């Protein structure tokens, strides 16, 4: 507080004004005093000048101090007011402080030190009040801003929710379309397969070798297409939660052997050996035989597809009496380590170029993964580029123990 402080003394008593003036003159703080002898004078001065502090006598000729304080308050004059009181006027001082005065000072205690101290502390308090007011205003403003931001966020959230619903609907329609289309495509594809097989089996009127070759190609392509259509159908069923578990007791060794036999022809066509090594002391499992068939078909047909020479082996073992492992090993092209994590995601293929060598939808492993999870199992892969891959499925012997999946449907989303 090194600046010159501007003080207004409002008092009709010249002796009192003189006392204040003297004390101010002697105080260690530099102060300049202006005098007003009535409330009217004071208001006129305060309307045109800024003061750092006001000394106010309670009894003025035209108004009492209380009214003046209220008036100054209405006029938003912010300078701190120190009430000058006479002997025994404490009650009045208290009333004036309630009305907005900062402090009071007994006229008979006026001294340079007390005056300077009172002025300084009144100014300090008023500043702190002003800062608090300002902080409050800022707080209110930022609250208001927050409220607005919140409203905006809420609006955006509602919009996102709506878009989400629209997306879900579009997703549902897409899955429905996929399911219907793949279902519709399967019927003619099965007819093509059936007729091609009949043509190949004609003993009485055999085909020429060129014709046989052509029909064989029709058969191969139709089988490839059917496999892809089946994958799309499985995928859409899994997505819409329509893939239902149907658990029963069956012989796993027999079931795997039959499934592998269905694929032997494909392996032979590529000159690959297809071996089975199915060692179970108890071949009976309680699981979904259709799911298991699809899992084995997907893994073995991938092994055949991605192997150009060597062999494919299907191994079954008991890890514990309650847990089994089905492994499909190949001596194929292998998978680079950076691709191992993503191949189980739908539509992921290591080679995604249009000129890629191997056909496929990129859905087989995603479906396999979901089916394995529905059976309560896990699937892992180990592979070396150029040397081959091993896909291992671990399953509980009894899937029925899984209450949550027992008679339920589980969508891909839930299984992820
Ligand atoms: P698709 O076989 O239709 O391309 P999958 O989901 O079955 O789709 O497989 C995803 C990708 O994983 C394949 O495109 C291939 O790059 C890789 N992959 C799967 N199985 C094998 C395998 N046995 N050997 C090498 N790569 C494989």
Write structural notes for this entry.
The protein is built from 10 helices and 12 strands. The protein is of the alpha/beta class and 416 residues long. It has a 5-stranded parallel sheet, with helices on both faces. A 5-stranded mixed sheet has the order 7-9-10-12-11. The radius of gyration is 47 Å and the shape is rod-shaped. The chain binds adenosine-5'-diphosphate. Adenosine-5'-diphosphate binds next to helix 8 and helix 9.
> What does the average pLDDT come to?
89
Bound molecules: adenosine-5'-diphosphate
Number of helices: 10
SS elements, strand count? 12
The gross shape turns out to be rod-shaped
Fraction of residues in H or I helices: 40-55%
Strand content: 15-25%
Question: The biggest beta sheet, please?
Answer: 5 strands, parallel
Q: In angstroms, what is the radius of gyration?
A: 47 Å
Distance between the termini: 69 Å
SSE order, as H and E? EHEHEHEHEHHEHEEHEEHEEH
Structural class: alpha/beta
Low-confidence spans: 401-411
Please state how the strands of the largest beta sheet are arranged side by side. 2-1-3-4-5
Compact description:
By secondary structure, this protein is an alpha/beta fold.
Task: Provide tags for this entry.
416 residues, alpha/beta, five-stranded parallel sheet, five-stranded mixed sheet, 51% helix, rod-shaped, binds adenosine-5'-diphosphate
SSE map:
Blueprint lengths: L4 E6 L3 H13 L4 E6 L2 H10 L4 E5 L7 H10 L6 E5 L4 H10 L3 E4 L5 H89 L8 H31 L8 E4 H18 L3 E6 L5 E4 L1 H17 L5 E10 L2 E8 L33 H11 L3 E7 L3 E9 L15 H4 L1
Parallel strand pairs: 1-2, 1-3, 3-4, 4-5, 7-9
Antiparallel strand pairs: 6-8, 9-10, 10-12, 11-12
The chain binds adenosine-5'-diphosphate (ADP).
The site of adenosine-5'-diphosphate has 21 residues, from α8 and α9.
């Amino acid at each position: 507080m090194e600046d010159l402080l501007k003080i207004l003394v409002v008092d009709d008593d010249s002796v009192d004004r003189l006392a204040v003036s003297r004390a101010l003159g002697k105080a260690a703080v530099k102060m300049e005093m202006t005098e007003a002898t009535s409330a009217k004078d004071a208001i006129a001065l305060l309307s045109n000048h800024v003061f750092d502090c006001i000394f106010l006598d309670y009894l003025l000729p035209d108004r009492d101090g209380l009214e003046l304080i209220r008036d100054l308050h209405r006029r938003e004059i912010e300078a701190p007011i120190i009430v000058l009181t006479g002997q025994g006027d404490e009650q009045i001082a208290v009333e004036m402080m309630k009305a907005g005065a900062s402090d009071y000072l007994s006229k008979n205690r006026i001294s340079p030190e007390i005056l300077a101290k009172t002025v300084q502390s009144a100014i300090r308090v008023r500043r702190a009040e002003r800062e608090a007011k300002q902080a409050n205003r800022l707080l209110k403003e930022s609250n208001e801003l927050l409220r607005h931001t919140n409203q905006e966020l809420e609006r955006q959230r509602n919009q996102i929710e709506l878009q989400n619903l629209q997306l879900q609907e579009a997703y549902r329609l897409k899955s429905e379309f996929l399911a219907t289309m793949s279902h519709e495509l399967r019927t003619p594809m099965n007819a093509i397969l059936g007729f091609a097989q009949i043509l190949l089996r004609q003993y009485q009127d055999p085909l020429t070798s060129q014709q046989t070759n052509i029909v064989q190609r029709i058969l191969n392509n139709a089988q490839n297409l059917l496999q892809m259509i089946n994958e799309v159908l499985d995928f859409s069923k899994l997505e819409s939660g329509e893939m239902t578990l149907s658990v029963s007791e069956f012989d796993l060794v027999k079931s795997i052997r039959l499934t592998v036999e269905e694929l032997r022809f494909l392996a032979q066509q590529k000159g690959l050996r297809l071996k089975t090594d199915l060692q179970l002391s108890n071949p009976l499992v309680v699981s979904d035989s259709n799911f298991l068939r699809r899992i084995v078909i997907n893994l073995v047909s991938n092994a055949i597809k991605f192997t150009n020479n060597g062999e494919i082996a299907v191994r079954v073992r008991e890890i514990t009496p309650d847990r089994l492992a089905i492994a499909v090993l190949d001596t194929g092209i292998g998978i680079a380590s950076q691709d191992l994590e993503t191949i189980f995601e739908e539509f992921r293929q290591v080679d995604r170029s249009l000129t890629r060598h191997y056909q496929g939808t990129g859905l087989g492993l995603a479906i396999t993964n979901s089916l394995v999870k529905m059976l309560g199992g896990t699937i892992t892969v180990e592979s070396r580029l150029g040397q081959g891959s091993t896909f291992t499925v671990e399953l509980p012997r009894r899937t029925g123990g899984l209450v949550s999946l027992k008679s339920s449907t589980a969508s891909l989303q839930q299984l992820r």
